[in-house]
Amino acid sequence: MRPRPVRLMNMQALPETLLAEVRDRYGVVADTAEAISGGTASKLWRLDSEPSVVVRLSQYYRLPDQQWSCRVAAEFAGELSEVIPPLVGSDGEAVFSWQGRPITVWPFVMGERLDRRNLVQLRQAARLLARLHLSARAFPSLSEGKPPERNDSEAERLLPDPDLDRWLRSWQEHSDDQQAGWMHRDFFPGNVLWRDGQIVGLVDWDEVEWGPLTNELAWSVWEFGRSLAGDALDLDHALEFLSEYRRAGGPVRPTNDLIPLIRARLRSDIAFWRRGNAADPAEDRAKVAAFSALRHVSLVP
């Protein structure tokens, strides 16, 4: 479960003390650092080193969380060229703590965020997810994980839906029957980099966890199939994503489970961002509208 939202440290320039720490730990020599967009979860700086790297300060996650996510990313990088592994420091760790915040360093990859309206790009993303799931076994150095325990009582009070609650309880009771593996869990266009007609990077492994792969397929269908406003699901795009995933050998068979899993994740997201008074009003309204509208949608190819 994600920690409580907090405000990012208010800084644009990379502090000299942090730059020196990166140099000492990773052997990265740079004169300047450029702040680049890191979304709501992190602060990013691109260094003018050779080759160029990105220094990432995590907003939400603790040091042990980041160490684990880096280990999983490194394992996937051994299987898929699109996965960018973190740099490992002189102490053998990919993560260190600076002023109480986890810091990681990654190779810089030039690319644009994927365009969910472009069907060529959408299909390639679906194929990448299929390959991720085919590789999502218990890696020798990690073995199997344990699905995190979640308490969604706050979300249930916020957007009551007794039918969904009953369905989720039944689904969770039988989750051992689902194919499980390591999941990226934030597979959406902003984390998939595109250049020269192909996907060149899958980044941001903060939310990695072990669990039923159906969960990740459901949320990916939403992220790549949703309307631009985020208030509805474009069924043509969603079904195209699912079909391409299966054509590429994706191991999860699409079922009627997908829609309630999407609605459950939407509800949890709404509660998460409201909890810290960090919700964008327009996005919040769109998610609430989608949560309601999806109740009447069927999504099986």
From TrEMBL:
Pfam families: APH. It comes from the Bacteria. Transmembrane segments: none annotated. Residues 33-246 form the Aminoglycoside phosphotransferase domain. This is Aminoglycoside phosphotransferase domain-containing protein. It comes from Kribbella soli. The lineage of its organism: Bacteria, Bacillati, Actinomycetota, Actinomycetes, Propionibacteriales.
